[in-house]
Amino acid sequence: MSTKRVLIAEDSSVIQNLARKILEFQNYDITSVKNGEQVMQILEKEDFSIILLDINMPVMDGMECVRRVRALADKEKANIPVVAITGNAKNYTEEEFKTAGFNDVLVKPLNFDRLVEVVNQLTDK
C-alpha cells in the first residue's frame, strides 16, 4: 500500500508542524501550504488522500476552498475527504461545515488523538 498523502493548509506554522510530526509518526506523507489558493494550485498537479483545511486563512479561507475542491471537474479529486480545522467553531454550525463539503471538523486546540483517528478513518478506503 503506498503512503497516504495528507495536504495540510494552515497559516499557523506551530499547528502545521505539530500536525506534521504527529501524522508522519503514523507514516503519512505530509505536504503543507498556507492558504486555500495554494491548495487549489497543488491539487491540479498532485494527488492526496485527505486535506486538512484551516478555516481562517489569508487569500482563500477554508470554507471557500472546500467549495472549490467539491466543484472540481476531476471527480476523484472533488471527492477527497476534507477536514476543517477551526479555532472558532462557534462561527459556523456543524450543518454549515457539512453543507460546504467538509467530512469532519477538528477544533483547536487540536486534540492529536482525535486528529489521528479522523485521518485514519477518512483515508481507510
List the helices and strands and how they pair.
Elements: E1 5-9, H1 13-25, E2 29-33, H2 36-45, E3 50-54, H3 62-70, H4 75-78, E4 82-86, H5 94-100, E5 104-107, H6 112-123
Parallel strand pairs: 1-2, 1-3, 3-4, 4-5
Helix pairs in contact: 2-3
Describe the structure concisely for a colleague:
It contains 6 helices and 5 strands.
Keywords:
5-stranded parallel sheet; 6 helices; single chain; Rossmann fold; 125 residues; alpha/beta; CheY-like_superfamily; 19% strand; 5 strands; Response regulator receiver domain-containing protein; 44% helix
Structure notes:
The chain has helices spanning 13-25, 36-45, 62-70, 75-78, 94-100, 112-123, and strands at residues 5-9, 29-33, 50-54, 82-86, 104-107. It is α/β, with parallel strands linked by helices and 125 residues long. It has a single domain (5-123), classed as Response regulator (Rossmann fold). The chain has a 5-stranded parallel sheet with strand order 2-1-3-4-5, with helices on both faces. The longest helix is centred in the N-terminal third of the chain and has 13 residues, at 13-25. The termini are close together.
